[in-house]
Amino acid sequence: MRSATGAIWKQAAMPSSPVFWKRCPRRRAWFYTSLPGALGEDGTVQFLREVLRIASEELRKDRPAATVRDLLRAELLTRVASISDRILDVAIDHAALMLDLGNLVRAALLDGRAASRELVARATAWEALADRQVSAIRDLCGHGGERSWRGIASVADDAADDFEDVAFRLQFLPADIPADVREGLLRLSGHAVAAVGHYVRLLCAVRNLRRGSPRLEMRAFLDCVEKLHDQEHATDKAERDVFAALMRAEVSAKTLNLVTAIAAGLERTADALLRGGRLVSDHALGEWFAV
Amino acid sequence: MPWESGLQSDGIQIIACPGLLPAEDALAAVGGKAFNLLKLAANGFPVPPGFVLPTALCRQWIEKGPPPPADFRALIAGPLQCLEQAAGLCFGDARKPLLVSVRSGLRVSMPGMLDTVLDVGLTRATLPGLVAMTGNPRLAWDCYLRLVASYAQTVRGLDLAPFEKLSRDAAGAAGVAALDTLSLRELVLRHLALFADLAGEPFPDDPFQQLLAPSMPYSAHGIQSGRSAIAVSTGWKACPARR
To answer: How high is the ipTM of this complex?
Structure first.
Protein backbone atom coordinates (compact mmCIF):
# COMPACT_ATOMS: atom_id res chain seq x y z
CA MET A 1 0.00 0.00 0.00
CA ARG A 2 2.76 2.41 0.97
CA SER A 3 4.79 1.90 -2.21
CA ALA A 4 1.65 2.16 -4.34
CA THR A 5 0.67 5.41 -2.60
CA GLY A 6 4.20 6.70 -3.09
CA ALA A 7 4.12 5.99 -6.82
CA ILE A 8 0.81 7.81 -7.33
CA TRP A 9 1.97 10.62 -5.06
CA LYS A 10 4.94 11.31 -7.34
CA GLN A 11 2.58 11.65 -10.28
CA ALA A 12 0.08 13.79 -8.40
CA ALA A 13 2.73 16.21 -7.15
CA MET A 14 4.28 16.84 -10.57
CA PRO A 15 3.35 20.25 -11.95
CA SER A 16 2.79 18.83 -15.43
CA SER A 17 0.82 15.84 -14.21
CA PRO A 18 -2.86 15.42 -14.97
CA VAL A 19 -4.75 17.72 -12.65
CA PHE A 20 -8.39 17.97 -11.75
CA TRP A 21 -10.92 20.74 -11.95
CA LYS A 22 -11.55 22.43 -8.69
CA ARG A 23 -14.54 24.55 -7.97
CA CYS A 24 -14.32 27.63 -5.81
CA PRO A 25 -17.90 28.07 -4.50
CA ARG A 26 -17.80 31.76 -3.77
CA ARG A 27 -16.27 32.80 -7.07
CA ARG A 28 -18.35 30.36 -9.11
CA ALA A 29 -15.23 29.64 -11.14
CA TRP A 30 -13.29 26.52 -12.01
CA PHE A 31 -9.56 26.26 -12.31
CA TYR A 32 -6.74 23.75 -12.33
CA THR A 33 -4.74 22.72 -9.31
CA SER A 34 -2.61 19.73 -8.36
CA LEU A 35 -3.75 17.25 -5.69
CA PRO A 36 -1.25 18.48 -3.08
CA GLY A 37 -2.24 22.05 -3.91
CA ALA A 38 -5.86 21.30 -3.10
CA LEU A 39 -5.61 18.75 -0.30
CA GLY A 40 -2.23 19.48 1.24
CA GLU A 41 0.48 16.81 1.47
CA ASP A 42 -1.07 14.91 4.35
CA GLY A 43 -4.52 15.07 2.78
CA THR A 44 -3.16 13.82 -0.53
CA VAL A 45 -1.55 10.76 1.06
CA GLN A 46 -4.80 9.99 2.93
CA PHE A 47 -6.85 10.44 -0.22
CA LEU A 48 -4.55 8.22 -2.28
CA ARG A 49 -4.71 5.50 0.36
CA GLU A 50 -8.48 5.72 0.25
CA VAL A 51 -8.43 5.59 -3.57
CA LEU A 52 -6.44 2.37 -3.49
CA ARG A 53 -8.70 0.86 -0.83
CA ILE A 54 -11.93 1.78 -2.62
CA ALA A 55 -10.65 0.74 -6.03
CA SER A 56 -9.35 -2.65 -4.88
CA GLU A 57 -12.43 -3.44 -2.77
CA GLU A 58 -14.94 -2.44 -5.42
CA LEU A 59 -13.09 -4.17 -8.26
CA ARG A 60 -12.95 -7.35 -6.19
CA LYS A 61 -16.74 -7.11 -5.94
CA ASP A 62 -16.85 -6.89 -9.77
CA ARG A 63 -18.37 -3.41 -9.67
CA PRO A 64 -18.34 -1.63 -13.05
CA ALA A 65 -15.53 0.85 -13.65
CA ALA A 66 -18.05 3.69 -13.93
CA THR A 67 -19.33 2.99 -10.40
CA VAL A 68 -15.79 2.92 -9.04
CA ARG A 69 -15.08 6.21 -10.78
CA ASP A 70 -18.19 7.79 -9.20
CA LEU A 71 -17.19 6.53 -5.77
CA LEU A 72 -13.72 8.02 -6.19
CA ARG A 73 -15.18 11.33 -7.37
CA ALA A 74 -17.48 11.41 -4.35
CA GLU A 75 -14.52 10.70 -2.07
CA LEU A 76 -12.56 13.54 -3.67
CA LEU A 77 -15.43 16.00 -3.38
CA THR A 78 -15.78 15.32 0.34
CA ARG A 79 -12.11 16.15 0.81
CA VAL A 80 -11.54 19.13 -1.43
CA ALA A 81 -11.59 22.31 0.53
CA SER A 82 -12.25 25.55 -1.26
CA ILE A 83 -9.24 27.68 -2.13
CA SER A 84 -10.29 30.16 0.54
CA ASP A 85 -10.11 27.40 3.17
CA ARG A 86 -6.68 26.40 1.89
CA ILE A 87 -5.46 30.02 2.07
CA LEU A 88 -6.77 30.23 5.60
CA ASP A 89 -4.91 27.04 6.52
CA VAL A 90 -1.63 28.52 5.23
CA ALA A 91 -2.36 31.84 6.96
CA ILE A 92 -2.78 29.94 10.25
CA ASP A 93 0.51 28.11 9.57
CA HIS A 94 2.12 31.52 8.99
CA ALA A 95 0.69 32.82 12.27
CA ALA A 96 1.87 29.65 14.05
CA LEU A 97 5.44 30.39 12.94
CA MET A 98 5.14 33.97 14.19
CA LEU A 99 4.02 32.56 17.53
CA ASP A 100 7.05 30.24 17.55
CA LEU A 101 9.30 33.26 16.91
CA GLY A 102 7.60 35.27 19.65
CA ASN A 103 7.97 32.44 22.14
CA LEU A 104 11.63 32.05 21.16
CA VAL A 105 12.27 35.73 21.91
CA ARG A 106 10.40 35.46 25.18
CA ALA A 107 12.34 32.34 26.18
CA ALA A 108 15.62 34.20 25.52
CA LEU A 109 14.48 37.09 27.72
CA LEU A 110 13.34 34.74 30.48
CA ASP A 111 16.71 32.97 30.32
CA GLY A 112 18.35 36.18 31.48
CA ARG A 113 21.43 35.67 29.34
CA ALA A 114 22.38 36.87 25.88
CA ALA A 115 20.65 34.83 23.19
CA SER A 116 22.77 31.94 21.95
CA ARG A 117 23.91 31.56 18.33
CA GLU A 118 21.67 28.49 18.04
CA LEU A 119 18.65 30.51 19.07
CA VAL A 120 19.45 33.27 16.58
CA ALA A 121 19.97 30.67 13.83
CA ARG A 122 16.63 29.06 14.70
CA ALA A 123 14.89 32.43 14.54
CA THR A 124 16.43 33.10 11.10
CA ALA A 125 15.31 29.68 9.82
CA TRP A 126 11.77 30.12 11.16
CA GLU A 127 11.49 33.59 9.67
CA ALA A 128 12.53 32.18 6.28
CA LEU A 129 9.88 29.47 6.70
CA ALA A 130 7.30 32.17 7.47
CA ASP A 131 8.33 33.94 4.24
CA ARG A 132 7.65 30.72 2.34
CA GLN A 133 4.10 30.63 3.78
CA VAL A 134 3.56 34.18 2.50
CA SER A 135 4.71 33.03 -0.97
CA ALA A 136 2.37 30.04 -0.74
CA ILE A 137 -0.55 32.36 0.06
CA ARG A 138 0.36 34.57 -2.91
CA ASP A 139 0.46 31.51 -5.18
CA LEU A 140 -2.96 30.39 -3.98
CA CYS A 141 -4.60 33.80 -4.30
CA GLY A 142 -4.90 33.94 -8.09
CA HIS A 143 -6.90 36.88 -9.41
CA GLY A 144 -10.21 36.39 -7.65
CA GLY A 145 -11.69 37.89 -4.52
CA GLU A 146 -9.06 36.15 -2.41
CA ARG A 147 -6.43 38.62 -3.68
CA SER A 148 -6.68 40.61 -0.46
CA TRP A 149 -4.90 37.76 1.35
CA ARG A 150 -1.69 38.83 -0.44
CA GLY A 151 -1.78 42.14 1.39
CA ILE A 152 -2.87 40.56 4.67
CA ALA A 153 -0.01 38.05 4.63
CA SER A 154 2.59 40.68 3.69
CA VAL A 155 1.48 43.09 6.41
CA ALA A 156 1.31 40.41 9.11
CA ASP A 157 4.69 39.05 8.03
CA ASP A 158 6.29 42.28 9.28
CA ALA A 159 5.71 40.82 12.76
CA ALA A 160 7.81 37.76 11.84
CA ASP A 161 10.58 40.03 10.51
CA ASP A 162 10.52 42.12 13.68
CA PHE A 163 10.63 39.08 15.99
CA GLU A 164 13.61 37.74 14.05
CA ASP A 165 15.35 41.10 14.26
CA VAL A 166 14.75 41.23 18.01
CA ALA A 167 16.17 37.69 18.39
CA PHE A 168 19.30 38.85 16.52
CA ARG A 169 19.74 41.87 18.79
CA LEU A 170 19.16 39.82 21.94
CA GLN A 171 22.53 38.10 21.46
CA PHE A 172 24.18 41.42 22.38
CA LEU A 173 22.04 42.13 25.45
CA PRO A 174 24.26 42.26 28.56
CA ALA A 175 23.21 40.02 31.44
CA ASP A 176 23.47 42.87 33.96
CA ILE A 177 20.82 45.25 32.64
CA PRO A 178 18.70 46.78 35.46
CA ALA A 179 15.99 44.45 36.76
CA ASP A 180 13.11 46.82 35.98
CA VAL A 181 14.32 47.19 32.37
CA ARG A 182 14.43 43.41 31.97
CA GLU A 183 11.00 43.06 33.58
CA GLY A 184 9.68 45.74 31.24
CA LEU A 185 11.04 43.87 28.21
CA LEU A 186 9.49 40.64 29.49
CA ARG A 187 6.10 42.32 29.89
CA LEU A 188 6.42 43.82 26.43
CA SER A 189 7.30 40.45 24.87
CA GLY A 190 4.35 38.89 26.72
CA HIS A 191 1.97 41.38 25.10
CA ALA A 192 3.55 40.81 21.67
CA VAL A 193 3.15 37.02 22.00
CA ALA A 194 -0.44 37.47 23.23
CA ALA A 195 -1.13 39.60 20.14
CA VAL A 196 -0.04 36.70 17.90
CA GLY A 197 -2.38 34.39 19.83
CA HIS A 198 -5.28 36.76 19.17
CA TYR A 199 -4.30 36.94 15.49
CA VAL A 200 -4.46 33.11 15.33
CA ARG A 201 -7.89 33.19 16.99
CA LEU A 202 -9.02 35.83 14.51
CA LEU A 203 -8.04 33.62 11.58
CA CYS A 204 -9.84 30.66 13.14
CA ALA A 205 -12.88 32.88 13.70
CA VAL A 206 -12.90 33.75 9.98
CA ARG A 207 -13.32 30.05 9.22
CA ASN A 208 -16.19 29.77 11.70
CA LEU A 209 -17.73 32.94 10.29
CA ARG A 210 -18.05 31.16 6.95
CA ARG A 211 -19.59 28.04 8.38
CA GLY A 212 -21.42 28.88 11.56
CA SER A 213 -24.42 30.67 12.98
CA PRO A 214 -23.98 34.31 12.00
CA ARG A 215 -24.64 36.25 15.21
CA LEU A 216 -22.52 34.22 17.65
CA GLU A 217 -19.67 33.76 15.21
CA MET A 218 -19.70 37.44 14.26
CA ARG A 219 -19.49 38.40 17.93
CA ALA A 220 -16.54 36.06 18.49
CA PHE A 221 -14.85 37.44 15.38
CA LEU A 222 -15.27 41.08 16.40
CA ASP A 223 -14.09 40.20 19.89
CA CYS A 224 -10.79 38.96 18.39
CA VAL A 225 -10.33 42.25 16.50
CA GLU A 226 -10.97 44.20 19.69
CA LYS A 227 -8.42 42.11 21.60
CA LEU A 228 -5.82 42.87 18.93
CA HIS A 229 -6.51 46.58 19.54
CA ASP A 230 -6.11 46.04 23.29
CA GLN A 231 -2.79 44.26 22.82
CA GLU A 232 -1.51 47.01 20.55
CA HIS A 233 -2.33 49.61 23.22
CA ALA A 234 -0.72 47.41 25.89
CA THR A 235 2.51 47.06 23.88
CA ASP A 236 2.61 50.85 23.35
CA LYS A 237 2.38 51.39 27.08
CA ALA A 238 4.87 48.63 27.87
CA GLU A 239 7.39 50.13 25.42
CA ARG A 240 7.09 53.51 27.14
CA ASP A 241 7.55 51.83 30.52
CA VAL A 242 10.79 50.29 29.25
CA PHE A 243 11.92 53.70 27.99
CA ALA A 244 11.05 55.30 31.36
CA ALA A 245 12.97 52.58 33.20
CA LEU A 246 15.96 53.19 30.92
CA MET A 247 15.86 56.91 31.67
CA ARG A 248 15.90 56.19 35.41
CA ALA A 249 18.76 53.70 35.15
CA GLU A 250 22.50 54.17 34.76
CA VAL A 251 23.25 52.34 31.52
CA SER A 252 25.83 52.75 28.79
CA ALA A 253 24.91 54.42 25.49
CA LYS A 254 25.39 51.04 23.81
CA THR A 255 22.87 49.34 26.11
CA LEU A 256 20.47 52.28 25.82
CA ASN A 257 20.54 52.00 22.03
CA LEU A 258 20.19 48.21 22.06
CA VAL A 259 17.30 48.03 24.54
CA THR A 260 15.46 50.84 22.75
CA ALA A 261 15.76 48.97 19.45
CA ILE A 262 14.57 45.71 21.03
CA ALA A 263 11.58 47.41 22.66
CA ALA A 264 10.68 49.21 19.44
CA GLY A 265 10.90 45.91 17.51
CA LEU A 266 8.56 44.16 19.94
CA GLU A 267 6.11 47.07 19.81
CA ARG A 268 6.11 46.99 16.00
CA THR A 269 5.04 43.31 16.02
CA ALA A 270 1.75 44.21 17.69
CA ASP A 271 1.30 47.11 15.23
CA ALA A 272 1.80 44.75 12.27
CA LEU A 273 -0.60 42.20 13.70
CA LEU A 274 -3.26 44.84 14.29
CA ARG A 275 -2.86 46.13 10.74
CA GLY A 276 -3.06 42.56 9.44
CA GLY A 277 -6.07 41.91 11.69
CA ARG A 278 -7.88 44.98 10.37
CA LEU A 279 -7.30 43.83 6.79
CA VAL A 280 -8.59 40.35 7.71
CA SER A 281 -11.62 42.01 9.26
CA ASP A 282 -12.29 44.15 6.17
CA HIS A 283 -11.96 41.13 3.90
CA ALA A 284 -14.11 38.79 6.01
CA LEU A 285 -16.83 41.35 6.69
CA GLY A 286 -16.90 42.24 2.98
CA GLU A 287 -17.41 38.57 2.14
CA TRP A 288 -20.00 38.17 4.87
CA PHE A 289 -22.08 41.12 3.66
CA ALA A 290 -21.75 39.94 0.07
CA VAL A 291 -23.38 36.57 0.87
CA MET B 1 -29.00 16.97 38.74
CA PRO B 2 -26.88 14.28 40.44
CA TRP B 3 -23.90 16.67 40.28
CA GLU B 4 -24.83 18.00 43.71
CA SER B 5 -24.81 14.54 45.29
CA GLY B 6 -21.48 13.60 43.72
CA LEU B 7 -22.54 9.96 43.33
CA GLN B 8 -24.13 8.72 40.16
CA SER B 9 -25.56 5.41 39.00
CA ASP B 10 -23.19 2.42 38.93
CA GLY B 11 -21.15 4.04 41.69
CA ILE B 12 -19.55 6.58 39.36
CA GLN B 13 -18.26 9.38 41.55
CA ILE B 14 -18.04 13.00 40.49
CA ILE B 15 -14.97 14.94 41.59
CA ALA B 16 -15.19 18.63 42.50
CA CYS B 17 -18.10 18.81 44.91
CA PRO B 18 -17.21 21.40 47.57
CA GLY B 19 -18.39 20.52 51.08
CA LEU B 20 -19.08 16.88 50.27
CA LEU B 21 -16.48 14.77 52.11
CA PRO B 22 -16.17 11.20 50.82
CA ALA B 23 -17.06 8.37 53.19
CA GLU B 24 -14.08 6.57 54.71
CA ASP B 25 -14.95 3.34 52.91
CA ALA B 26 -14.83 5.22 49.61
CA LEU B 27 -11.07 4.59 49.47
CA ALA B 28 -11.57 0.99 48.39
CA ALA B 29 -14.29 1.98 45.95
CA VAL B 30 -12.47 4.75 44.10
CA GLY B 31 -8.75 4.15 44.78
CA GLY B 32 -6.28 6.38 46.58
CA LYS B 33 -5.75 9.00 43.89
CA ALA B 34 -9.44 9.73 43.40
CA PHE B 35 -10.10 9.57 47.15
CA ASN B 36 -7.53 12.30 47.78
CA LEU B 37 -8.94 14.40 44.94
CA LEU B 38 -12.44 14.03 46.43
CA LYS B 39 -11.15 15.18 49.83
CA LEU B 40 -9.32 18.15 48.32
CA ALA B 41 -12.41 19.16 46.34
CA ALA B 42 -14.62 18.77 49.41
CA ASN B 43 -12.34 21.12 51.34
CA GLY B 44 -12.63 23.76 48.65
CA PHE B 45 -9.25 23.32 46.96
CA PRO B 46 -9.23 23.98 43.20
CA VAL B 47 -9.51 20.49 41.72
CA PRO B 48 -10.23 20.11 38.01
CA PRO B 49 -13.65 18.58 37.47
CA GLY B 50 -13.67 14.86 36.77
CA PHE B 51 -15.39 11.57 37.45
CA VAL B 52 -14.32 8.15 38.70
CA LEU B 53 -15.31 4.75 37.35
CA PRO B 54 -15.17 2.67 40.56
CA THR B 55 -13.14 -0.46 41.21
CA ALA B 56 -16.36 -2.52 41.40
CA LEU B 57 -17.12 -1.62 37.78
CA CYS B 58 -13.59 -2.65 36.85
CA ARG B 59 -14.05 -6.05 38.55
CA GLN B 60 -17.40 -6.46 36.81
CA TRP B 61 -15.83 -5.81 33.42
CA ILE B 62 -13.11 -8.38 34.12
CA GLU B 63 -15.72 -11.01 34.99
CA LYS B 64 -18.22 -10.28 32.24
CA GLY B 65 -16.01 -8.65 29.62
CA PRO B 66 -15.85 -5.00 28.62
CA PRO B 67 -19.12 -3.27 27.75
CA PRO B 68 -20.07 -2.60 24.13
CA PRO B 69 -19.16 0.95 23.09
CA ALA B 70 -22.82 2.05 23.05
CA ASP B 71 -23.35 0.82 26.65
CA PHE B 72 -20.17 2.54 27.78
CA ARG B 73 -21.29 5.75 26.14
CA ALA B 74 -24.65 5.54 27.91
CA LEU B 75 -22.93 4.77 31.22
CA ILE B 76 -20.72 7.83 31.17
CA ALA B 77 -23.24 10.17 29.53
CA GLY B 78 -24.38 11.70 32.85
CA PRO B 79 -20.94 12.25 34.43
CA LEU B 80 -19.57 13.53 31.13
CA GLN B 81 -22.39 16.04 30.93
CA CYS B 82 -21.47 17.25 34.43
CA LEU B 83 -17.88 17.62 33.31
CA GLU B 84 -18.93 19.50 30.19
CA GLN B 85 -21.08 21.89 32.21
CA ALA B 86 -18.29 22.55 34.69
CA ALA B 87 -15.72 23.15 31.95
CA GLY B 88 -18.02 25.00 29.55
CA LEU B 89 -16.78 22.69 26.82
CA CYS B 90 -18.15 19.67 24.99
CA PHE B 91 -16.47 16.27 24.54
CA GLY B 92 -15.89 15.61 20.83
CA ASP B 93 -17.12 19.06 19.79
CA ALA B 94 -15.30 20.60 16.83
CA ARG B 95 -15.57 24.19 18.16
CA LYS B 96 -15.03 23.86 21.92
CA PRO B 97 -13.62 20.41 22.55
CA LEU B 98 -13.34 19.07 26.09
CA LEU B 99 -10.16 17.07 26.62
CA VAL B 100 -9.69 14.73 29.54
CA SER B 101 -6.83 12.86 31.13
CA VAL B 102 -7.67 9.27 32.03
CA ARG B 103 -5.77 8.02 35.06
CA SER B 104 -5.83 4.77 36.97
CA GLY B 105 -6.11 4.46 40.71
CA LEU B 106 -5.65 1.69 43.28
CA ARG B 107 -6.34 1.50 46.99
CA VAL B 108 -2.60 1.35 47.60
CA SER B 109 -0.08 3.60 45.92
CA MET B 110 1.92 1.94 43.12
CA PRO B 111 4.20 4.63 41.66
CA GLY B 112 4.97 4.11 38.01
CA MET B 113 2.66 1.11 37.66
CA LEU B 114 -0.57 2.84 36.76
CA ASP B 115 -1.57 4.14 33.39
CA THR B 116 -2.28 7.70 32.29
CA VAL B 117 -3.50 8.79 28.91
CA LEU B 118 -3.38 12.54 28.35
CA ASP B 119 -5.53 14.78 26.15
CA VAL B 120 -8.16 12.14 25.35
CA GLY B 121 -10.75 13.59 22.97
CA LEU B 122 -8.28 15.19 20.58
CA THR B 123 -8.98 14.11 17.01
CA ARG B 124 -8.51 15.55 13.54
CA ALA B 125 -11.97 17.07 13.89
CA THR B 126 -11.45 18.61 17.34
CA LEU B 127 -7.86 19.81 16.88
CA PRO B 128 -8.81 23.00 14.98
CA GLY B 129 -11.20 23.79 17.83
CA LEU B 130 -8.35 23.56 20.36
CA VAL B 131 -6.24 25.86 18.14
CA ALA B 132 -9.10 28.39 17.98
CA MET B 133 -9.67 28.23 21.76
CA THR B 134 -6.06 28.59 22.82
CA GLY B 135 -4.74 30.63 19.88
CA ASN B 136 -1.77 28.27 19.98
CA PRO B 137 -1.37 25.73 17.14
CA ARG B 138 1.86 24.40 18.61
CA LEU B 139 0.17 23.51 21.88
CA ALA B 140 -2.55 21.60 20.02
CA TRP B 141 -0.07 19.51 18.03
CA ASP B 142 2.06 18.95 21.12
CA CYS B 143 -1.05 17.61 22.93
CA TYR B 144 -1.75 15.31 19.98
CA LEU B 145 1.82 14.01 20.09
CA ARG B 146 1.44 13.21 23.80
CA LEU B 147 -1.92 11.54 23.25
CA VAL B 148 -0.57 9.25 20.52
CA ALA B 149 2.48 8.29 22.58
CA SER B 150 0.60 7.67 25.84
CA TYR B 151 -2.19 5.77 24.06
CA ALA B 152 0.33 3.63 22.15
CA GLN B 153 2.15 2.71 25.33
CA THR B 154 -0.60 2.32 27.90
CA VAL B 155 -3.54 1.11 25.82
CA ARG B 156 -1.88 -0.83 23.01
CA GLY B 157 1.25 -1.83 24.94
CA LEU B 158 3.47 -0.72 22.05
CA ASP B 159 7.18 -0.18 22.48
CA LEU B 160 7.86 3.56 22.64
CA ALA B 161 11.41 3.22 21.26
CA PRO B 162 10.41 3.57 17.56
CA PHE B 163 8.33 6.65 18.42
CA GLU B 164 11.24 8.15 20.34
CA LYS B 165 13.56 7.41 17.43
CA LEU B 166 11.24 9.30 15.09
CA SER B 167 11.31 12.28 17.45
CA ARG B 168 15.11 12.13 17.74
CA ASP B 169 15.49 11.92 13.97
CA ALA B 170 13.23 14.94 13.51
CA ALA B 171 14.50 17.15 16.30
CA GLY B 172 18.01 15.92 17.09
CA ALA B 173 19.57 16.39 20.50
CA ALA B 174 17.75 19.68 21.06
CA GLY B 175 14.46 17.80 21.48
CA VAL B 176 10.95 18.40 20.22
CA ALA B 177 10.91 21.87 21.84
CA ALA B 178 13.37 23.03 19.17
CA LEU B 179 10.97 22.18 16.33
CA ASP B 180 8.81 24.81 14.70
CA THR B 181 5.05 24.12 14.67
CA LEU B 182 4.98 22.89 11.07
CA SER B 183 7.76 20.38 11.72
CA LEU B 184 6.02 19.30 14.92
CA ARG B 185 2.87 18.64 12.90
CA GLU B 186 4.88 16.54 10.44
CA LEU B 187 6.26 14.59 13.37
CA VAL B 188 2.74 13.93 14.72
CA LEU B 189 1.65 12.66 11.30
CA ARG B 190 4.65 10.33 11.21
CA HIS B 191 3.77 9.09 14.70
CA LEU B 192 0.21 8.38 13.52
CA ALA B 193 1.53 6.44 10.52
CA LEU B 194 3.90 4.49 12.78
CA PHE B 195 1.05 3.74 15.19
CA ALA B 196 -1.01 2.35 12.28
CA ASP B 197 1.93 0.19 11.18
CA LEU B 198 2.68 -1.18 14.65
CA ALA B 199 -0.89 -1.55 15.89
CA GLY B 200 -2.27 -2.86 12.61
CA GLU B 201 -5.06 -0.29 12.65
CA PRO B 202 -5.27 3.50 12.52
CA PHE B 203 -5.15 5.61 15.64
CA PRO B 204 -8.73 6.02 16.91
CA ASP B 205 -10.23 9.21 15.57
CA ASP B 206 -13.44 8.88 17.59
CA PRO B 207 -13.21 10.62 20.99
CA PHE B 208 -15.46 8.02 22.70
CA GLN B 209 -13.31 5.21 21.37
CA GLN B 210 -10.28 7.02 22.78
CA LEU B 211 -12.02 7.29 26.15
CA LEU B 212 -13.29 3.71 26.26
CA ALA B 213 -9.98 1.93 25.76
CA PRO B 214 -7.95 3.45 28.64
CA SER B 215 -10.96 3.07 30.97
CA MET B 216 -10.89 -0.69 30.55
CA PRO B 217 -9.17 -2.82 33.21
CA TYR B 218 -6.70 -4.28 30.70
CA SER B 219 -3.52 -2.30 30.50
CA ALA B 220 0.02 -2.61 29.26
CA HIS B 221 0.95 -3.77 32.78
CA GLY B 222 -1.62 -6.57 32.85
CA ILE B 223 -4.95 -6.87 34.57
CA GLN B 224 -5.42 -4.82 37.71
CA SER B 225 -8.62 -6.09 39.23
CA GLY B 226 -8.94 -3.43 41.88
CA ARG B 227 -8.39 -0.52 39.55
CA SER B 228 -10.49 2.57 39.18
CA ALA B 229 -10.37 4.91 36.20
CA ILE B 230 -10.43 8.68 36.72
CA ALA B 231 -11.31 11.04 33.89
CA VAL B 232 -10.23 14.58 34.69
CA SER B 233 -10.70 17.67 32.55
CA THR B 234 -7.34 18.90 31.24
CA GLY B 235 -8.46 22.46 31.81
CA TRP B 236 -7.97 23.98 28.35
CA LYS B 237 -10.28 26.96 28.25
CA ALA B 238 -11.40 29.45 25.68
CA CYS B 239 -9.18 32.08 27.29
CA PRO B 240 -5.40 31.99 27.92
CA ALA B 241 -4.09 28.45 27.85
CA ARG B 242 -3.51 27.03 31.28
CA ARG B 243 -3.18 23.53 32.58
So the answer is: 0.81
